[in-house]
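The records we work with from here on pair a chain with its fold. These numbers are not coordinates but entries in a learned vocabulary of local backbone shapes. To see the layout at work, look at the sequence and tokens printed below.
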Amino acid sequence: MAEQFLKGASSAYIDTIYYPTAESISYKAPFESNIPAESNQGPLANVVTWNKEAGTINLTILHYSGCDYVGNFSKPGGYNITLNGRSGNSIIAKGCYLLEAPQHDQVNGTTELSFGTLSMQFVMAS
């Protein structure tokens, strides 16, 4: 029974504005890889290519009275996001950018957001 309190999201702060969220937030951390370089002759000895893949954050925020859901997500990039889990763990992402236009659902009172980021930090509860 106690594990139910360790699962799920509790809130998000996007550019210091509080947003209640749906229980599920999915994310993929940025990933850096160094793979052997290739040439027409095959792999090059002691030469690697550097590749950094951006991380993603997908979340659903819940609407509340007085919040401008369209205007707050109209700039192309530079969002700072803090995601708080029920476990006390947090994810901090800086310099996030929208991967696609936000999808607003007036009937359900939600907005679907997808962000990309190269900077993600995990803060564990103590």
